[in-house]
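Collaborator request, handled under Task 6.
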Amino acid sequence: MADPKNRLRPLLHSGVAHKVNAALDEIVRLGDPGLCDWILEGAYVANLAMSEHWSWKHADVQELRHPSLEPEQVLRVAARGTSALAAKLRGQIAKLGIELGFNRRHEPFLDVSMLGGLTDTTKLRLMPKDPESLYEWRAEMMKTPAKLLGGFDMIAGMAALEHLTVLGGGGVTLAPLAPLRALAHVELVACDLRDTGELGRLAARTLILVACPHVATLDALPPALEHLYVEDLPALRSLAGLAAAPQLRTVHVTGVPLDALPALPKSVKVTFQRERPVRSDFEELAG
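Structure tokens returned to the collaborator:
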């Protein structure tokens, strides 16, 4: 029987993304642990921020690196592979970051369809767009269209996920997040989110929505929500959901076309500014 490596090797070294991905998907589909290890040999987990100077962009997440494959490509095999090495690598990525790097900004989308296989990952940071090193990088990201996250619905399989951040993501919907009962922190920056009705089904205790140009209403909020951070939502016309969020402790709303917030209990710490002040320093968002 012919060795499948001989057929797959030219595809893997073609440099053509769809050919490489097709070969990797076939390896997963074949379910041969030896083929998985052939790909995963040399893969290792490393911090996405290569120095403390980039921690503002990458936080404390990691990525899976490989001598000849892009991080999300080798992750296709590690996330779904049947070998002991694949399982070992999955166990090492508790905090995962996936990005389109500087040299790949031209690509039309970031494929994250492998996410459903990462059942032990607790923190995920998706960056289909690369934020610039500017104080106003969140607002600046809104000036160009969000970039599609292919296969985002597969996030529903990440049963252990506690912390999600998406920067500049297209195709982002909330329905895949509803089954994730451990998901306490949701942060969406410059995403193309439109339908917020599913927020009422989320388990989130912290919700951060920043520079999302299509968010018009927040009339349903997660029932366990404690901290809400809303900034630069130019289409927002309603925050009626605040009245039905009994666990709220802090509310920060700025840069929205509203004159006032609904009445809230005195126990809630509220910050409200219709116009957001221009930043003169880097600001870590609450939560």
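The cover message to the collaborator said: "The CA atoms of residues 24 and 274 lie 49 Å apart. The mean pLDDT is 92. Please let us know whether this matches your experimental observations."
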